[in-house]
Automatic annotation (TrEMBL):
GO terms for cellular component: membrane. GO terms for biological process: glycolipid biosynthetic process. Signal peptide: none annotated. Keywords: Glycosyltransferase, Transferase. Residues 46-211 form the Diacylglycerol glucosyltransferase N-terminal domain. The keyword 4Fe-4S does not apply. The keyword Transferase applies. This is Processive 1,2-diacylglycerol beta-glucosyltransferase.
């Protein structure tokens, strides 16, 4: 079957369907999907990557039986809530504890007792739901899910093709399992890390990290600026990722960005949290420079396109989106562990700078706005690292593997 992109209307309908499906596990299971995508909502990036892949698959073949499961939420909602609470609490209030956990599990032996225990979390519930009509191919954008699938394959209970899509710019042992058929990674650096861990090179594809297909679209920057009442000539600082900061520090960062001497506009994305939105709107009234405060938005691709500089904590998907738009990043308060690695990746490749203190943040942003040629060089580096077509690359490999599997199946 030819892989022909769907029309604009079909894309919107498919995206809406995928959003709905991700929240309705019973609907996914009732489809008896031939392709199952496993994600999790810790940090949101895993699920966003899963949805991006799913959309590309449906654009290739609208008749595919496709499912998405939020793995922990499906197999054990109580455990899911506990893990979510523990994750959010540790990264907000005890980041050193999360760093310890991440680092201590960085190089666990895949065959160790600890790893085998992790690989059995939810395995009975998951297998029970799929055993009668198992998928032909399973894609994991969350590491624990990949381990469970690998274990079932090793036990001879599951014969599905097992693909793993890594959603950060570092290789953690939790992603690596014996019965994985293909790894999709974000960079050449990650490919080398996997090779150093003795992964077969034929099982590694440098695809980039999948993002929303709109990050490939051309944006009418003048129209977007007009809609936000932003002067065409002012550089824009885009502030995202403040949800993990203490409230007092969040307000202080608003002040630091506002007090940067060079004339500019700051766009603040406050997200779902009402308190941060309210505080940002209150500060907006007294800001020295123009400030636009937004809550949850669905047009990050446009906001990044009009911006000169991103202030972010370096989440895997946000980092990737900025690279796809060629947007330099100043990283501030990354979550210890995986986001430290993302930050290091950006800095090492010249696409980002890291601010370790509030004072650093103000100084770095001031310097970059006063030296626009440095921003231009960083933007060039960012664009060279971006893979806006990553979701298409991953989806194409999935689709071809599925059809090859069907063609080779016994008559």
């Amino acid at each position: 079957m030819d892989m022909v992109p769907a029309s604009g209307t079909d894309v919107k309908q498919s995206a809406d369907w995928i959003d709905w499906l991700a929240n309705h596990h019973d609907a996914t299971l009732s489809l008896h999907p031939e392709i199952m995508i496993l994600a999790a909502r810790y940090g949101d990036g895993h699920l966003r990557a899963a949805k991006a892949i799913a959309l590309q698959l449906l654009m290739m073949d609208s008749q595919l039986r496709l499912g998405i499961l939020d793995y922990y939420r499906f197999v054990n909602p109580g455990l899911d809530n506990l893990i979510r609470w523990g994750y959010l609490t540790s990264v907000r209030r005890a980041p050193s504890l999360w760093r310890w956990f991440y680092t201590s599990t960085q190089n666990i032996d895949p065959l160790s007792r600890t790893q085998r225990m992790i690989n059995h979390i939810g395995i009975k519930r998951f297998y029970s739901a799929l055993k009668d009509m198992p998928p032909k191919l399973i894609v994991s954008t969350y590491p624990t899910a990949a381990g469970v699938v690998s274990t079932l394959k090793q036990q001879g209970k599951l014969d599905a093709i097992n693909y793993v899509v890594m959603t950060d710019y570092s290789v953690h042992t939790q992603w690596i399992h014996p019965a994985v058929d293909m790894y999709f990674v974000g960079s050449e650096d990650m490919r080398q890390e996997l090779l150093d861990r003795h992964i077969d090179p034929s099982k590694i594809i440098v695809s980039g990290i999948p993002v929303d297909e709109r990050f490939q679209e051309t944006v009418d920057e003048h129209a977007v600026r007009q809609s936000l009442h932003i002067d065409d000539n002012l550089p824009i600082i885009l502030f995202m990722g403040g949800a993990y900061m203490p409230i007092a520090e969040y307000v202080q960062v608003l002040k630091i960005l506002d007090h940067v001497p060079a004339k500019h506009t700051t766009i603040v994305i406050a997200g779902h949290e009402e308190l941060r939105l309210t505080l940002a709107k209150q500060y907006e009234q007294q800001a020295r420079n123009p400030m636009v405060v937004l809550g949850y938005v669905n047009n990050v691709h446009e906001l990044m396109a009009i911006s000169s500089l991103l202030i972010s904590k370096a989440g895997g998907l946000t980092t990737t989106e900025s690279l796809c738009r060629g947007l330099p990043t100043v990283i501030y308060r990354p979550i210890p562990g995986q986001e430290d690695a993302n930050a290091e990746f950006l800095v090492r490749n010249g696409a980002g700078r890291r601010a370790h203190t509030e004072e650093d943040l103000g100084e770095i942003v001031t310097h970059l706005l006063e030296h626009p040629w440095e921003l231009k060089a960083m933007a060039h580096q960012a664009r060279s690292l971006g893979h806006p077509d990553a979701a298409q690359i991953v989806a194409k490999h999935i689709y071809l593997a599925l059809r090859t599997e069907e063609a080779n199946a016994p008559a």
